[in-house]
Fold this sequence. Notes:
The complex is a heterodimer of chains A (218) and B (135). With 218 residues, chain A is mainly alpha-helical. Chain A has helices at 33-37, 47-60, 71-92, 94-106, 118-136, 143-180, 187-216. Chain A has seven helices and no strands. In chain A, helix 3 (71-92) crosses helix 4 (94-106). The model of chain A is unreliable at 1-9 (pLDDT under 50). Chain B has one domain (5-123): Sufe protein. Chain: A (Alpha-Beta Complex), CATH 3.90.1010.10. The radius of gyration of chain B is 14 Å and the shape is globular. A three-stranded antiparallel sheet of chain B has the order 1-2-3. At the A-B interface, helix 5 and helix 7 of A face strand 1 and strand 2 of B.
Amino acid sequence: MGERMGQPVMERREFALFGEGGEIRRIPPEVSHFGLFGLPPKVSLDERALEAKYYALSRRLHPDFFMAAPVGERIRSLEASARLNEAYKTLKSPVRRAVYLVELASGRLAENDARPPAGLLEQILEAQEAAAELRCGCGGEEAGELRGRIGAARECFEALRSGQRKALEDLGAQWDRAVDEGRPVPPEALQKMRSILSQRNYIENILRSLREALEAAP
Amino acid sequence: MPYSDKVVDHYNNPRNVGSLDKKDPSVGTGIVGAPECGDVMKLQIKVNEEGVIEDAKFKTFGCGSAIASSSLATEWLKGKTIDEAEQIKNTQIVEELNLPPVKIHCSVLAEDAIKTALNDIREKKGLPLAERKKH
């Protein structure tokens, strides 16, 4: 990811969705979800301000106002509504918001070198296999032993998850401090957030599998 | 319809599910994951003295397209040399399985698993490593 790391270029000003004559302006691609709502690009956010702004803008974009409008304006109102909904959905959820910020600063999580530590995927595979074995009852291992092994794996992944949540909170606070002080986000903090966020789905998935296996199996 | 017939077929009758001994010097292993959906894929190949892939196995925990992509990959790998296997592209998997755009990353994951397994066996056999493509 190289040169893009640590120097998130983020527009701070609010994008004016409506022109002076009340017409809808096309939203350029470089306007971030934060810019759309006039919010600072931070990990923590004023949820009430977000909601208020979202409702205010949505009301003005309501299709009823554009029934008699020229086709171009009608299309722009639909496009703006779609973008607004997407932005709101992303910013409202703390996890999606963090992922969005990190991707804004350093590229998509799926791309670049967001590889999890070598051992993690192996551990997950092993636990998934144990879960599958318990569900089908087809392994050689005695069920009680298997359940014990799955329970231990579950505790281990839960501990990992809570450690990462705590780390993410600390990193988010670092991020917000940097934004407040007008500094670039420290590259190490960005890198760590990237790494934690890109492991998140693996850990959620395995925990769900383990829980389901333990609940479903007799 | 979300899945093509071929995806459904591979999903219902996955080929070559299983594991090979990771420590065997003739076995190459690739374990990869997709951070956006949390799918995890393991693909293993057994390569004989002539450099031909004799056997391929996979285990995938993920969606139907990820399972189908890795199942298809193991079918294609068998009988190929290491260099021939290196030529398998995710776009061929997309085409064969008729994957929709939202599932293209599953084929990327399968290609990634192939490349990782091939590099693992190259390393074990003391062969030069192939350059890893960045997606």
